[in-house]
């Protein structure tokens, strides 16, 4: 009864400030039922739950999550400049930062804690702002002779990414994750080509 115990804590603090134990013991003295819980341990679990939610929803937590983006981008930029392997292949800094966050985040090592709902809201709103900004700019479009070559290069890049992704998923199926669907490997070119909006939709589904 998270809602009832939270109200009990607020009422007890406002009307008769006591310890958590005394507040719980006096729960039946109100004119109406405040909390249905009969376990003292649940009031402490309520405090833990409220503390977790307040940390994630506070302005300070929002600032920390935004700073984490800049830290990962800076680390990815340093890796691209210092390691020769990333100089010879085209890997966007944002994509490399995303892989760093995946490795350091709760999905792998658990060293960093992210508010994924905050990142989803940022992607949603900033994508809208980006598309609006494109309509407000003036651009002169000129047809170039190598447009066909550029298009073929982009398509071949997507096909190569899909092949790599499916091979990686197939390797996981053979070794440690036999329940995976091999088509999940196509998420790599789709998320890479369609942008963060598609990746956010896939990740939250």
Describe the structure.
There is one protein chain. The protein is mainly α and 205 residues long. The chain contains 10 helices and no strands. Helix content is 70%, strand content 0%. The mean pLDDT is 76.
**What overall form do the CA principal axes indicate?**
elongated
List the uncertain runs.
none
Q: What share of residues is helical?
A: over 70%
The end-to-end span amounts to: 28 Å
Structural class: mainly alpha
Count all strands and give the number.
0
Q: In sequence order, what are the helices and strands, one letter per element?
A: HHHHHHHHHH
Largest sheet features: none
The number of helical elements comes to 10
Strand content: under 5%
Q: Summarize model confidence as the mean pLDDT.
A: 76
Radius of gyration: 25 Å
Helix/strand layout:
Elements: H1 2-15, H2 20-25, H3 41-57, H4 59-82, H5 85-88, H6 93-104, H7 116-136, H8 147-175, H9 187-194, H10 196-204
Brief digest:
By secondary structure, the chain is an all-alpha fold. The chain has helices at 2-15, 20-25, 41-57, 59-82, 85-88, 93-104, 116-136, 147-175, 187-194, 196-204.
């Amino acid at each position: 009864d998270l809602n009832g115990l939270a109200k009990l804590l607020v009422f007890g603090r406002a009307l008769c400030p006591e310890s958590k134990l005394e507040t719980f013991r006096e729960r039946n003295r109100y004119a109406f039922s405040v909390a249905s819980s009969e376990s003292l341990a649940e009031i402490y679990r309520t405090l833990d739950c409220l503390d977790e939610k307040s940390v994630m929803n506070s302005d300070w937590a929002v600032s920390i999550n935004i700073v984490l983006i800049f830290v990962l981008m800076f680390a990815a930029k340093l890796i691209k400049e210092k390691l020769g392997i990333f100089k010879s292949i085209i890997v966007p800094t944002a994509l490399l930062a995303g892989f760093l966050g995946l490795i350091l985040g709760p999905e792998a090592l658990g060293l960093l804690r992210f508010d994924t709902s905050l990142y989803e809201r940022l992607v949603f709103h900033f994508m809208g702002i980006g598309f609006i900004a494109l309509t407000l700019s003036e651009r002169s479009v000129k047809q170039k002779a190598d447009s066909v070559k550029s298009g073929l290069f982009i398509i071949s890049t997507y096909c190569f990414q899909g092949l790599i992704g499916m091979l990686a998923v197939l390797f996981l199926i053979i070794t440690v994750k036999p329940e995976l669907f091999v088509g999940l490997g196509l998420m790599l070119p789709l998320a890479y080509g369609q942008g963060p909006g598609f990746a956010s939709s896939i990740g939250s589904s």
